[in-house]
Amino acid sequence: MSLPVSTEPVRIVRHADKVVELRLDDPGRGNALDLRMAEALRDRAVEVAADPGGAVLLRATGGTFCVGGDLRAFAGRGAETGTYVHAVASAAHAAIHALHELPVPLVTAVRGAAAGGGIGLALIGDIVLAARSARFRLAYTAIGLTPDCGASWLLPRLAGPRRAADLILTNRVLTGEDAERWGLVSRSVDDEELDDAAHRTAADLAAGAGEALHAAKGLLRAGAGEELRSHLVEEARLIAALADGREARDRMVSFLAAGGRPKAGDSQARARESRSVS
After folding, report:
1. N or C: which end of the chain has fewer CB within 10 A?
2. Which Pfam family is an annotated match for this chain, by its short name (predicted)?
3. Nearest Cα to Cα of residue 33 among 75, 67, 84, 80
C-alpha cells in the first residue's frame, strides 16, 4: 500500500539522531514564497521552535533552495498588491525570527538558487553549507523593491557594509564558493556531498554538549533578537509600500514577460535570473 503524498509546501522531519529537519517542499515552484508558502513556513518554524530536538536542519527538496517571492502571485493585484506583499513578508518574517531565536544550533543547506527572500532564509542559520554551484542573488532592485526576510540586516553583519551594498544595489551573483569567500556561508562543498555534509554537521551538534551549545549560542545572539524583529517590521513596511507603486508593478510585469531574464544592456545580463524574488 502506497503512503499518501504530502501536499504541504513545508514539512518537518524528525530523525532518530535528534536532528529536526525543516524542509521546504515545493520544488515545482522553486520553493517560491507566496502567501500559502510563507504561512506554512511560519507555522512549521513555530512548531519546530517549540520542540527543536538537539539541532535543526533547514534544507529544500529539489534542485533549488528558494527563489524568493512569487512574482506571479504578486503581479496583477492592482491596489491590493502592497497588502498582499506585506502579508507574505510578515509571515515569512515571523519564521525568520523564530529560526533566529532557536535555542539549539541551526544548520542550513543551500543548493541551486537562493534569491531574494531565499537569501535571508538561507543566511539565518548558525552554520550555513552551500553547494559549490549554488547561486546567491538579491535581485530586489531589478524589480523596484527593497530587501526583506532580514537580508538587509544580515548582510552587513556577515559581509561588511561595502559588500552588502554591492550585493543589494547591483544584484551581483555569487556562487557557493564566492559566498564562502565573502563570509556569507560557513563553507562550500561539492554538490553531491551537500545533503550528507549538512545532516552530519547537524547530527554532530545534536550529539554535542547541549547546555554548552545553548549557552554559547545565547552569547553569540545576545541582544540581537529585538533589533532583528524591529528591522523585519521596517523591511515589510518598505517592500509593501514600493510594491504599491507604478515602478515596481511595471518592472514585475516586464520581468515576467521577459521570462525572468534581464533586459539587453543590463549590467547583470550575464546572469540567469529567476522568475521569482522577494
Report:
1. N
2. ECH_1
3. 67
Q: Is there a contact between 250 and 256 (Cβ–Cβ < 8 Å)?
A: no
For 17, 50, 105, 210, the CA distances from 215, given in Å and listed in that order, are 21, 18, 11, 9
In terms of DSSP H, where are the helices of the chain?
35-50, 71-74, 81-100, 117-123, 151-159, 161-170, 176-181, 194-206, 210-220, 224-243, 246-257
pTM (2 decimals)?
0.90
pLDDT digits (tens, 9 = 90+) for 145-180: 999 999 999 999 999 999 999 999 999 999 999 999
178-196 per-position pLDDT tens digit: 999 999 999 999 999 999 9
Q: Quote the CA–CA distance of 90 and 153 in Å, as a whole number.
A: 15
Say how far apart CA 276 and CA 255 lie, in whole Å: 9
Tell me which residue has cell 514585475: 252
In the chain, the domains with their CATH numbers are 10-195+209-257 (3.90.226.10)
- Pull the grid cell for residue 22: 525543516
Q: Which tens digits make up the pLDDT trace of 60-94?
A: 999 999 999 999 999 878 889 999 999 999 999 99
Distance CA 235, CA 118 (A): 15
